[in-house]
Amino acid sequence: MSPAVIIIFVSVTAAIHGSALATKGLDPVMAEFIKTSCEVTLYPQVCVSSLFSYAGSLNATQRDLVKAAVQTTLVNARNASVWAAGMKAARRATMSKREKAALGDCVEDFGVTTDQIRESLSELEKLRRSTFQIQMGNVKTWMSAALTNENSCLDGFQGVNGRVEAMVTAQVHYMCKLISNALALINRFAAIG
């Protein structure tokens, strides 16, 4: 593996898993708010660890929590996109045609996913009472589409076993957990307004 791919992989992995280290010194009220809010998600541990790094900048509101969940998902989507593009460039000579095509599809999917999550965050930034349900419908649609895109990335790797497939699968599964968690928090927020 080239040094560039190793650096990108280590950077992305640290960004993904490093938020769990940020729990020391966290306000106990905020920690409890995050933990309780994350109970509605399918992956509560991932939810809590991904949101703890935002705890210092949050107010204890569902709106702030939803925005933080979408923001952390966006950061991870951008990182995954950069990682996949770097992997594609660095491993081009050692990948089969099928791996190259599948990874190329994933790079494209990651880009679309990033755009959809960015649109969701933008919509959350400008919520208004008069259009709240329409705006939340937009956010749900974009985040659901982002989840579908991530799962589509793996379709090209069906029947391919190897290092590239394993690394991409790990990235996609983690991203799907983040998107799923954000979507659960979005649905809850939309229901309680």
In DSSP terms (H or I, runs of 4 or more residues), the helix count works out at 7
Judging from the principal axes of the Cα atoms, what is the shape? elongated
Q: How can the largest sheet be summarized?
A: none
The amount of beta strand, in percent, is under 5%
Strand and helix order: HHHHHHH
Number of beta strands: 0
Helix content: over 70%
Average the pLDDT over all residues and give the rounded result.
Answer: 86
Instruction: Provide the gyration radius in Å.
Output: 17 Å
Stretches where pLDDT is under 50 for at least 5 consecutive residues are 1-23
Structural class by secondary-structure content: mainly alpha
Task: Describe the structure in your own words.
- There is one protein chain.
- This protein is 76% helix and 0% strand.
- It contains 7 helices and no strands.
- It has helices at 3-17, 28-38, 44-52, 62-90, 97-125, 132-155, 163-192.
- Helix 1 runs antiparallel to helix 4 (62-90) and helix 2 (28-38) packs antiparallel against helix 3.
- The longest helix is centred in the C-terminal third of the chain and has 30 residues, at 163-192.
- Residues 1-23 have low confidence and may be disordered.
